[in-house]
Request: fold
Amino acid sequence: MNLQQYYHGLNSERLYLRKLTHEDIPSWTEFYENNPNLKYLDIDLNRTNVAMATAWVDTQINRYDKNEFGQLGIILKATDELVGTVGFLMNEKCAADELAQAIIIKPPYWNHGIAWEASVLILNANFEHNWASSIFGFRHKDNILSQRFSQKLGFKDTEVIEEKNRTTIKFELTKEMWKHNFN
Reply:
């Protein structure tokens, strides 16, 4: 699959998306500072912020190298700051025509419309380029803000998953659902 459109050139009025690099690690450590939502993530919180940021960036670079999408950095055009990540991934839970999607925003940039703008940008690109006919994601059952956000985008809850002492909700969006909500 040719992912040049994914890796290069996705932008909106205030944002552009690009591959993460090791130079982003110091900036990405800010995501882990005083973030009350870390409890919802399936990560080892006993590590340092630098270790968690390094692991996140390394994981994305590995996905790029394998042509498996990966989270892209969300950059504010006005300041050239890394404010979050958004993107798709292919994993064992994905069928041939599915991708998993996630978005993460640094706490100082919450409630500024960045998550919405970046999500609409990446979802529009997916359905325009036909990378997948169905997009899904997972959220912790207690993450009510994530639930509201995904529903506002048109995602529908499809499954409750019990694993590793945590309960997550799988949610899904098809091209038809997207067209219905945004056309």
Summary: The two ends are 27 Å apart (CA to CA).
